[in-house]
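Our consortium's second objective concerns turning raw sequence data into structural hypotheses that experimental partners can test. To show how far this objective has progressed, the report includes one record in full. It was chosen at random from the queue rather than selected for favorable results. The single chain below, 218 residues long, was entered without modification.
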Amino acid sequence: MSSVTRASIAAALRRASAVTGAVLAIAIATAASISPPAAPTAADHLAAYIKTNSQTLDVAPTVAAAEITRGEYGATPGYATLAAEGTNHAWAKMVLLAGGWPMSTENVTVLLRWMRQENGPDNWFNRNNPLNNGWGSGGGGGTGHYASLVVAAQKAAEALGKNPGYSGIVANLAASSPTEVTEAAIWASPWASGHYANGDHWHYTDVPVVAAPASAWD
């Protein structure tokens, strides 16, 4: 082989090697510039799930909306709330609360009239015993006193509930009977020895709201 031929072959090999190196360099650079894909996020998973599992619901335009009837609800004040109010009206409700009877307008009205017959409206809290109750007050004939008006309310309800002679009063309070019916039961009961002259001494005008001293509720 002549020297010229060997030189040509060597030159060709060098060119081929250079081209191969360049190709490899480009391939390596390209691979390095391509980053791996990011991992799917929770939002991506949710979107994929919705896409795969989504459903549709067709509703006829003539379908009428259902009428929903919701029951009534309310809140019954407790001892602390009524004591904070601090009035004769609040005490009447406290007696009903202690007895488990409805705090209806009829029941509150009857108790307010009853309290007025016993102590008068302005001094209804006398001796912390608005109904002159002898039950647990330490005084016969209703002349005793209680530690507080809260205790007095509880003892009034207790007396009504435990003495069979007051069963008519209790039944009518439980039923929120008309005022005249419950009042007749009071007159017929042994609560007052004079039976309020069978109603002749009863007064029917509205009883004003009168607050008791704050100390009377403690």
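The partners drew two points from this record. Helices lie at 3-33, 42-53, 79-85, 88-99, 105-119, 149-162, 167-174, 179-188. The chain has eight helices and no strands. Both points have been shared with the crystallography group to help prioritize constructs.
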